[in-house]
C-alpha cells in the first residue's frame, strides 16, 4: 500500500470512528469541510482528521488527450473504508474510450468492492459543453449498457447546462444517469455569478448535487433549497501544505 493510500485510510478510519451526522452547512460564509459529510478526494490530498464522511468520491484514474485512449490509474492501493459510500471517479478529456479502457475501469470498481467497500458506482468527470450534450448523452447511454450491475452512474456537469442545455437532451439523460454533480468552482475559487444559474434550474430533470471548493466563498441561493432534484453538497478537498 502506498504512503498516500495509507494516510488516506488512517485519516478516514480515525474520522469514521467518531462518525456522526454532520451539522447542516451554513447558508453562507467560507466552505468549511467540517460542516459537510460528502467529499471529493484526489490522490495526494490528506483529509482533515475532524471530518465525518458519509460519501466519498475518489479519483481513480484519467483518460487523457493525445495518442490512443489509455486509462491511467492514479491509485495503487484499495484500502477498506468502512461506513462510507464510495464513488470511483474517472477524469476524462475525451470520449473515444475502447473496450480495454472500460474493462480496466470496471475491474477497479469490482476490486474496491471486493476489498469490503460499499461502492456506489462510477462517476465520469468530463466537461461537456451545453452544445455537446447530445454527443455526451450517446456516449453515456453506451457506457451504461456495459456498466456492471448494480453499479450506478454519476457525471459532473457545468452550471450553464441549466440555461443553455437542450431540455429534451437533459430529459433523455434522466434514465441513463443517476445523478449530476454541478461544479461551482474553477481552481480554488467559486465562479462569479453562480446564483443566476441556479435560479434557472427549476425545471432541471435530473437529481443533482452541488460541488464546492474547500475554503471558497459560498452564499447558498435561496432558489436552491426549493429545487426538488437537489440532493445536497460535496466539498472538493484541497491539498494543504501545513496540516497536522
UniProtKB/TrEMBL annotation:
A Pfam entry, by short name: DUF3142
Keyword Acetylation attached: no
Indicate the secretion signal residues: 1-17
- Specify the superkingdom: Bacteria
Tell me which UniProt keywords the record has, alphabetically: Signal
Designated name of the protein:
DUF3142 domain-containing protein
